[in-house]
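SEVERITY: medium
COMPONENT: batch folding queue
REPORTER: lab tech (J.R.)

DESCRIPTION
The queue accepted two submissions in a row. Attaching both inputs and their returned structure tokens so the on-call engineer can compare them side by side.

ATTACHMENT 1
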Amino acid sequence: MPTATYPFPTRSLVPVSGEAESPTDEILRAARELGHALTNDLQAPFGTLEIVLQTVPLPTDLYPLLQDAMIAIAEASGRVSQFQATVQNAALAAREPHSGALAS
């Protein structure tokens, strides 16, 4: 079976600029970037499965397996969205002067 290679370059979650960040800012930025990267990474397999299901003649017993795979990817995408909302809330809380949440 051929192995799949990731066709897109990956990028580091380490800041490029020389600007110093607080540990909290570093964590929040990395979490935001991770959320975006995971969302993008999940789109390719989901879209591929969708195209295969709509265009490729397959044995009938494979359809439920592929549909289950699509459901699993959609659920993972939902968890990433929840993670991104949590990160956004944490970022807002960290900027409030007296929140105490994730204070650095």
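ATTACHMENT 2
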Amino acid sequence: MSGVTSGTLDVIGPDAIQFAGVTYRLLTPDLLVGLSVGQHVTVVWDEREGQRQATKAILERTSMTSLGLGDLAQRRRVLFTMLTTLGFRYPPGREPPAIAGIRQVPR
């Protein structure tokens, strides 16, 4: 079995990492390069001999300020589409500030 899991790193050991209470053995020590406790990562893993073995670790951006304007605009469009598709409803009257903010996509 294999999978992908995301979370905040709790522990980094010489041959394993742990987040959300689950330990992942490292396929190679190179996977630790650039990682530190508290960072948000995505781990691609395979289950071998009853243990999850990380085959890839991807450091994720955690701050919206590190995103470019194109990334932010794309996120706004996706969120607006999701809200529209899901039939988002709000009380009659003034539009909530979050919706007004989403509509202000930079051109």
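NOTES FROM REPORTER
Residues 2-59 form a domain with the OB fold (Dihydrolipoamide Acetyltransferase, E2P) fold (CATH 2.40.50.140).
No errors were logged for either attachment.
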